[in-house]
Design a protein that fits this description.
Blueprint lengths: L6 E4 L9 H16 L3 E4 L13 H12 L22 H14 L2 E4 L3 H10 L21 H9 L5 E4 L6 E6 L3 E6 L7 E3 L7 H11 L4 E5 L6 H10 L8 E5 L2 E2 L9 H7 L8 E3 L4 E3 L2 H4 L3 H9 L14 H7 L10 E2 L2 H14 L6 H10 L7 H11 L8 H6 L12 H4 L4 H15 L6 H14 L4 H13 L7 H8 L1 H15 L2
Parallel strand pairs: 1-2, 8-9, 10-13
Antiparallel strand pairs: 3-4, 4-7, 5-6, 11-12
Helix pairs in contact: 1-11, 6-7, 10-12, 17-18, 17-21, 18-20, 19-21
């Protein structure tokens, strides 16, 4: 690490939902920045106006807010390198594109989309580059006079990089080591489009330079673009300021074959976006981890372990622990298979680990959305504390906690009826008599009374506990049954026993 101030950026395009691979890129940027006391920047790369989707930028910001990965500089908070939307920086890029043309490293291309499409039809594997550029309409094949005439007439054109012949460009990737490319295999990418907007290739280099980005982390799918970017840093005279690059491994389908996509999630029944995404253009709703019932801490924890480990057996990490332990040396070159069962395990562990009070607002929403009335926050926290170890996703709190607030809507009578006897009816009627006058109501005292009465009536305690549980909660689930009774209170416990006796004896 040099003494240069660490400045990293996440630069998404506002074209749709935020894939979990994108959030992992944010996370690794954030962890690296915080570990090295640096800055984490959010830059919106909205130069492709055809693919721009209304609401996508605010969605990205909401996702980062939910995850707790808040940028130090962004379109919202500003910063000394504002603006942070590339569409607001449009006037900057032409100067650099024109400079490249003047230097002979780029050229004007006047081909129409129709002409290019015709070439693709007629020429197998057509690429606009060294092989075909001289036979196309551009400033390399036309005379200087013809080019001036076309420019004076404001003929639509793009500016393309002129890839050199027979050169090898290379760089040292912080994850992959030495990476090298043959320039002959790369086409002449467009740098500035006909509408004056830069493409990703030009904008990312210019903005990383102007914003003093020290390290650039991105998915390995961007590796093929690296030779273009390397040459631009060189041609613009900025090579000494080029960020150190790290190309992160892909997140793979569960079977390990190919990159995990939105379609895979739909096919296999799990989300691949951080939060629900509604596409106003298509009317399609794509589910997210948040709405499924994941805690942000669990979501980040599982993402951190997709392609990284700290070299120990530890799996549960707080964000502070991740900051402390993170290093790019421990990031794998190989893709990481996504395992939804493991993802749910992380969430269950985080629910267990969380203080009941910190889950109060989420659980209250789960319950109230289902029509359960919650009026006492202190009581809710006690309930959460009793049942959280049994919940994998936040919606599980409905089944595990609703009966504390309302009488069960259904009873698993069939699990009781076949072994129900008059002696058991007598037992529960006597239990009501014994506890009705109790001045104190707690689990330990109730359990003692219950077991003593069972012994007195010569009935095995095990034959009575299941009916008692079903009386209180409606089914074969929940924490220790006497803890349930304690929280319900004496009056509700007696009411539920009486109601269930009617059902069991009908």
């Amino acid at each position: 690490m040099s003494d240069k101030k660490v400045r990293v950026r996440f630069a998404p395009s506002p074209t749709g939902g935020l894939h979990l691979g994108g959030v992992r890129t944010v996370l690794f940027n954030y962890l690296f920045a915080k570990k090295h006391k640096g800055d984490f920047i959010l830059r919106i790369e909205d130069t492709d106006q055809n693919r721009y989707v209304e609401g996508a930028e605010s969605y990205i910001l909401d996702c980062l807010q939910w995850c707790g990965l808040v940028p130090d500089e962004s379109p919202v908070v500003g910063g000394r390198f504002a603006p942070y939307r590339q569409s607001e920086r449009k006037s900057i890029y032409r100067e650099y594109a024109e400079r490249l043309v003047m230097q002979g490293h780029a050229y004007y291309a006047f081909d129409t989309p129709e002409e290019l499409e015709q070439n693709r039809k007629e020429i197998p594997n057509f690429q606009y580059g060294q092989v075909y550029r001289k036979g196309l309409r551009n400033s390399l094949s036309l005379t200087e006079h013809e080019v001036d005439q076309l420019l004076d007439a404001q003929t639509p054109h793009v500016i393309r990089i002129k890839m050199p012949a027979d050169e090898r460009v290379s760089f040292n990737d912080m994850i992959r080591g030495h990476v090298s490319f043959e320039t002959n295999q790369v086409d002449d990418k467009v740098l500035l489009k006909a509408d004056g907007m830069p493409t990703y290739h030009l904008a990312v280099v210019v903005d990383d330079y102007l914003m003093k980005i020290s390290h650039a982390f991105r998915g390995e799918e961007w590796l093929p673009s690296a030779p273009v970017h390397l040459l631009l840093w060189d041609y613009l005279g900025w090579k000494a300021n080029m960020p150190q690059w790290a190309h992160l491994p892909l997140i793979l389908k569960p079977d390990g074959h190919g990159k995990l996509s939105k379609r895979d999630g739909a096919r296999l029944g799990f989300p691949v976006y951080a939060m629900n995404w509604f596409d106003a253009k298509t009317g399609e709703l794509t589910p997210g981890f948040r709405e499924l019932g994941f805690l942000p801490e669990a979501f980040l924890n599982l993402l951190a372990t997709l392609g990284w480990n700290d070299g120990t057996d530890q799996e549960i990490f707080t964000l502070d622990e991740l900051v402390d332990k993170f290093s790019l040396e421990r990031v794998s070159k190989a893709g990481a298979k996504f395992d939804f069962e493991k993802a749910k395990w992380f969430n269950a562990e985080w629910i267990k680990k969380s203080e009941a009070g910190s889950l109060k607002s989420e659980v209250s929403k789960v319950l109230t959305d289902k029509g359960v009335i919650v009026t006492d926050d202190a009581y809710l926290v006690k309930v959460i504390d009793k049942v959280k170890d049994r919940c994998v996703l936040l919606p599980d709190f409905y089944q595990q906690a609703a009966y504390f607030f309302e009488q069960p809507k259904e009873y698993d009578v069939n699990s009781v009826k076949s072994k129900w006897t008059d002696a058991k009816t007598e037992f529960f009627n006597l239990l009501i008599d014994r506890v009705s006058g109790a001045e104190t109501w707690d689990a330990a005292k109730l359990e003692t009374t219950f077991k003593a009465l069972a012994e007195e009536k010569a009935i095995k305690v095990g034959e009575l506990l299941l009916p008692f549980r079903i009386m209180l909660v409606g089914g074969k689930f929940g924490p220790h049954v006497f803890d349930i009774a304690e929280l319900l209170g004496k009056e509700k416990t007696i009411q539920r026993i009486e109601k269930a006796l009617d059902l069991f004896n009908s």
